[in-house]
Amino acid sequence: MIFVTVGGQLPFDRLVHAVDRWAVNQQRSDVFAQIGSSASPPAHIEWERLLSPPDFQAKARSADVIIAHAGMGSILTALDLGKPIIVMPRRAHLGEHRNDHQWATVEHLGNDVGITVAADEEALLDRLGRLEELEAPGMRHSPEYARLLHFLQSVIEASD
Amino acid sequence: MKKRVLAIASGGGHWQQLMRLRPAFQGQHPIYVTTNAAYSIDVPGSELFVVTDANRNEPLNLIRSAFGMLVRVLKTRPNVVISTGAAPGLFGILFGRLVGARTIWIDSIANAEKLSMSGRVASKIAHVTLTQWPHLRGADAPRYEGSIL
Description:
The complex is a heterodimer. Chain A is an alpha/beta fold. Chain A is 42% helix and 14% strand. Chain A has one domain: Glycogen Phosphorylase B (Rossmann fold), CATH 3.40.50. Chain A has helices at residues 13-26, 53-62, 72-81, 101-109, 121-128, 143-158; strands at 2-5, 31-34, 46-48, 65-69, 85-88, 116-117. In chain A, helix 3 (72-81) links the parallel strand 4 and strand 5. In chain A, helix 1 runs parallel beside helix 5 (121-128). Chain A is globular and about 60 Å long. In chain B, strand 5, helix 4 and strand 6 form a beta-alpha-beta unit. By secondary structure, chain B is an alpha/beta fold. The termini of chain B are far apart. Chain B has a 7-stranded parallel β-sheet with strand order 3-2-1-4-5-6-7, covered by helices on one side. The longest helix of chain B is centred in the middle third of the chain and has 18 residues, at 59-76. In chain B, helix 2 (59-76) packs across helix 3 (87-98) and helix 3 runs parallel beside helix 4 (117-125). Chain B is built from 4 helices and 7 strands; from the N terminus they run E-H-E-E-H-E-H-E-H-E-E. Chain B has one domain (4-144): Rossmann fold. Chain B has helices at 13-19, 59-76, 87-98, 117-125; strands spanning 4-8, 29-34, 47-50, 80-83, 102-106, 128-131, 143-144. The radius of gyration of chain B is 14 Å and the shape is globular. Chain A binds chain B through residues 7-9, 52-54, 57, 71-77, 79-80, 101-102, 104-105, 107-109, 113, 140, 142-153, 155-160, and chain B through 3, 5, 11-13, 15-17, 20-21, 23-25, 28, 36, 38-39, 41-42, 79-80, 82, 101-102, 104, 106, 108-113, 128, 130, 132-133, 145-149.
């Protein structure tokens, strides 16, 4: 199953419809999308506007691949569950977000956390054409994560 | 003595980043505040309270959110207030400061090029403001002390 999510708040028709067209062409009936406030629902794939957190987790858990906007909720879901993920950043000049921070996020995260970035619909379709090449991200227990937890523990301990 | 840690995050990415901080609350008494009651499945055995979600374009919801947070802070009397964002967390930091809690703002890892607007406000209020990107570290604030990844 392929789980598509564009978060729960802003529309992202460009992503939803690119996947919808691909699913029609490939005759795939195992695609489900959480489309948020996207203006026009997809014609072919199954969708909901907003899943409850438990339903969202269940969909993500049963997915083989997650396709998402470059929101941290989506990215962290994939990392936590070890699911391959393709993200397409929202762009401000297309009215998809207030600014281009999703673009900056994926540029800085880069490939070292194991997420696949598609810059636009063309790149997304290219990646969808070779899903079998995607690898599951490994949830790293990095020194930076350990450092943050240790720092917070020490601040909490020192509080009164 | 266990410390009461009021841990605040709006839904979506903010909440998931807060969830990655849970190991730091082990042995303490965390109390969660978010914007969707269904997140209680993520924190079994812990108290979870809901406040109205709000952003800077929704003044009425901001007032509701602030009021809900004020009530929660007064009832909880936290030793520590910690938030990964967004607006409701900022109110938590503000009211937490007023009741003498130690206050920590952790700006979302999604803000890789500059601190969020809430983070910039938080850096004036919180005892500790953290960025998750070393290149955003400032002379005074924000500090860099690691990241959730």
